[in-house]
From TrEMBL:
Residues 48-57, 69-80 have a biased composition (Low complexity). SUPFAM superfamilies: DNA-glycosylase (SSF48150). Residues 81-94 have a biased composition (Polar residues). InterPro entries: Adenine_glyco, DNA_glycosylase. Residues 1-57, 69-101 are annotated as: Disordered. The gene is LOC107905403. Residues 29-42 have a biased composition (Basic and acidic residues). This is Probable GMP synthase [glutamine-hydrolyzing]. It comes from Gossypium hirsutum (Upland cotton). It holds the Pfam family Adenine_glyco.
Length: 335
């Protein structure tokens, strides 16, 4: 029995070309390579932005990212991290504005917020726990040159009262002092009788000790004599420093003296004239508060401010003092 056999084709089927071996073996085929090239041609090309036109913040951020990449990592991991970081920085750079960086030291100072500056630096004897009235007195009056006779007499009395009271206590009773002492008018206080002097009481107690009150009344009479001789009590006091305030430059409170040779000279002269309770310590305290000497510490913000006030006001004050002195000399010569 014959079996029909299927005739074989005489032509051999076409075989696919063998791929060329690359560095990685036969993993990459020729057909895949051609397919990728075709897709790359169809995909739209993204225009490249020149470096000069790129945003400055993106360029700076790229430099920062590139410099932060570790040299120990592989090239593939390093390039991947850099590319992803650049993409993130670029997106953030569009949405958020970068903080302005000052180019000079002056710009840095002007851009500092006042809240960052902190509290003002004062003399060491003024602390955060000091009485606000005492702090205000330090910031506004202490060390400022004074040339008014009534004001000078008031400050002299306060300096004498420090032997019995503290500065905060004196300042709290300041209006009481002014009321009982007739606003520190020497001509009015010179008329105080014994009865009037003993009536200077607060809550049934004398404002100061009896001896201190007697000294203040006696000093008021002597100030009138000084005014007749020198034209003003201010001219007499400022004459001991050549009408220019002394400027010390102490850095620490422990360096500030309680008396000086100038204070001793003024104290001796006042005692010679009959003034009472005017020892060198009292006189130097008076010189400090009246601005005859500037004893603000160099670290205190008021040190330079008092010096600036002196430069601004010293010329007209000197001219006024010289005029009063000449008038007093003419009066003395005419007699």
């Amino acid at each position: 029995m014959s079996v029909a056999t299927r005739p074989r084709s005489s032509t051999k089927p076409l075989t696919e070309p063998r791929a060329i071996l690359g560095p990685a073996g036969n993993r990459v085929r020729v057909s895949d390579e051609s397919k990728r090239r075709t897709e790359a041609l169809k995909k739209p090309q993204r225009p490249k932005v020149p470096v000069s036109q790129s945003p400055k913040s993106v360029v700076q951020s790229n430099v920062f990212v590139d410099s932060c990449c570790s040299s120990d990592s592989s090239s593939s991991n390093s390039s991947f991290k850099t590319a992803s970081s650049r993409k993130t920085v670029k997106q953030n750079g569009v949405k958020q504005a970068k903080p302005k960086v000052a180019s000079t030291a002056d710009e840095v100072v002007t851009e500092i917020s006042p809240a960052m500056l902190g509290p003002l630096k004062r003399c060491d004897w003024i602390t955060p726990f000091s009485d606000p009235l005492y702090t205000s007195f330090h910031d506004e009056e202490w060390g400022v040159p004074v040339h008014d006779d009534r004001k000078l007499f008031e400050l002299l009395v306060f300096s004498q009262a420090l032997a019995e009271l503290s500065w905060p206590t004196v300042l709290k009773k300041r209006e009481i002092f002014r009321k009982l002492f007739d606003d520190f008018d020497p001509s009015s206080m010179a008329q105080f009788t014994e009865k009037k002097m003993l009536s200077l009481k607060v809550d049934g107690c004398l404002l100061l000790s009896e001896a201190k009150l007697r000294a203040i009344v006696e000093n008021a009479k002597l100030i009138l004599k000084v005014q007749q001789e020198f034209g003003s009590f201010s001219s007499y006091c400022w004459g001991f420093v050549n009408h220019k305030p002394l400027r010390n430059a102490f850095r620490y409170a422990r360096q500030v003296p309680v008396k000086t040779p100038k204070a001793e000279v003024l104290s001796k002269d006042m005692m010679r004239r009959g003034f009472c309770c005017v020892g060198p310590t009292v006189v130097y305290s008076f010189m400090q508060v009246a601005g005859i000497v500037n004893d603000h510490l160099v670290t205190c913000f008021r040190c330079q401010e008092c010096n600036a006030t002196v430069k601004k006001d010293i010329k007209p004050k000197i001219e006024e003092i010289e005029r009063l002195t000449k008038d007093a000399e003419n009066i003395c010569l005419s007699r």
